Amino acid sequence: MDLDLVLEQLSRDWDARASDLEQNIHDALFELIPYSDEIPYPAQGNTLKRWQILSRVAGINLSLAKIFESHLDALAILNETGHAFETAKHELWAVWAAEGASPPLTLQDGHVSGVKNWCSAADWVNHAVMTYRDAKQNSQLLMVHLAESGIQQQFNDWHAVGMQHTHTAQLQFDHVPIELIGEPNLYLTRAGFWHGAAGVAACWFGAAQRLAQYLHEATVHKPHAYKYMYLGEMTSHMFATQALFYQTAQLIDAEPEKTHELQIRALRANVENTVLKVLELTGKALGAAPYCNHANFAQLAADLPVFIRQSHAAFDLERIGELALQEHGIWIL
Hints:
Blueprint: H1 3-13, H2 21-32, H3 47-60, H4 62-80, E1 93-96, E2 106-108, E3 111-119, E4 127-133, E5 139-145, E6 151-154, E7 169-177, E8 179-181, H5 186-189, H6 191-221, H7 225-254, H8 261-286, H9 289-293, H10 295-307, H11 314-326
Parallel strand pairs: 1-4
Antiparallel strand pairs: 2-3, 3-7, 4-5, 5-8, 6-7
Helix pairs in contact: 2-4, 3-4, 3-6, 4-6, 6-7, 6-8, 6-10, 7-8, 8-11
GO molecular function, one term: oxidoreductase activity, acting on the CH-CH group of donors
InterPro entries: Acyl-CoA_Oxase/DH_mid-dom_sf, AcylCo_DH-like_C, AcylCoA_DH/oxidase_NM_dom_sf
Organism: Acinetobacter wanghuae
């Protein structure tokens, strides 16, 4: 079975699979992992296909998409830094880059100690790529094997309602062996950081696309002038955002060594606006019924507002403005 068929079957059978949603996510995740090598790395000529796959996974379940996107991002980092392992495509990887834990990670003689927050799929992951800040605040990438001794998981601090099924934990490391990846500050300065950030936005868009589909189906089943109006407004937003994904993918593939930070920040801001509009309009058009009577709609509608908060709102818009001042003719048709 190829990846397209797996995704089609997951989407079709999702509600009828396991009654335990976390078990369902786990099983689907490990059905997808063996197909990791069929998914193009970003900036290698077929970035759009990568985003289309992430979008399809997100339309099934956003917790599944978040974990799978992190896995694919880790593989891309390993490939970019020359640390690719053949076994990596058959195990679950993650990127854990949240900062601000106490006590922070410290590194001594090739071993890490301290706390790392917001480690999604912590009890499912085999290997993780983590960020660590040294005494000079340089960000260094570390690779850790989760089967090592000296790692404790704490799930009590994850109180999320949306995105509650990501198995997110706080991890305590006590003299755990690690391997350094790349040079200091590589994680944020490499072009792949921004290319990966666009992949996250593809997940947001995929969930919005699935919610929009519910309105489309409801309008076919029971037409109404107001449904047509809401569907038309939503379609206008979705078309514009879809076109921006195509354009940005072409830019990245044409100039893979560049970050395209301005375009990708603008893409993410546009996707956020579209997602919020889809959430608003589907609710107005369909009322409370799908939130109460359809498990997948309700889960997507609860998860999506949390997931899009990986956008940094005003901070991103400020940076977009700064970058726009450095460009000339960016709005000329």
